[in-house]
């Protein structure tokens, strides 16, 4: 078992968020519904990150799973 997430892509996911809606961002990198959780983390040390959108807007969610500002992209993918 590893504590390092899979890297599904070395770029952020552009998504439309809806104000007040709760989302579960995939932290393990195994989900087939990136960037959101589909339960693929079961049996690992990872858990999805729950967050609620404050505003309806376009957002860039981390695709490399290494952002210090998860679930949002901070450019960490550029160093991978």
Automatic annotation (TrEMBL):
Sorted UniProt keywords: 2Fe-2S, Iron, Iron-sulfur, Metal-binding
InterPro entries listed in its UniProt record: CISD (IPR052950), FeS-contain_CDGSH-typ (IPR018967), MitoNEET_CISD (IPR042216)
Pfam families: zf-CDGSH (PF09360)
Keyword Metal-binding among record annotations: yes
GO molecular function: 2 iron, 2 sulfur cluster binding; metal ion binding
Ranges of residues in domain Iron-binding zinc finger CDGSH type: 10-47, 48-80
Matches recorded under Gene3D superfamilies: CDGSH iron-sulfur domain, mitoNEET-type
Record carries keyword Metal-binding: yes
PANTHER family cross-referenced by the UniProt entry: CDGSH IRON SULFUR DOMAIN PROTEIN HOMOLOG (PTHR46491), CDGSH IRON-SULFUR DOMAIN-CONTAINING PROTEIN 3, MITOCHONDRIAL (PTHR46491:SF3)
UniProt protein name: Iron-binding zinc finger CDGSH type domain-containing protein
Biological source species: Gemmobacter lanyuensis
């Amino acid at each position: 078992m590893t504590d390092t997430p899979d890297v599904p892509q070395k770029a952020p996911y552009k998504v439309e968020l809806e104000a007040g809606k709760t989302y579960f961002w995939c932290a393990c990198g195994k989900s087939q519904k990136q960037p959101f959780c589909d339960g693929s983390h079961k049996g690992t040390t990872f858990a999805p990150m729950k967050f609620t959108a404050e505003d309806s807007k376009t957002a860039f969610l981390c695709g490399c799973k290494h952002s210090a500002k998860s679930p949002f992209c901070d450019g960490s993918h550029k160093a991978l």
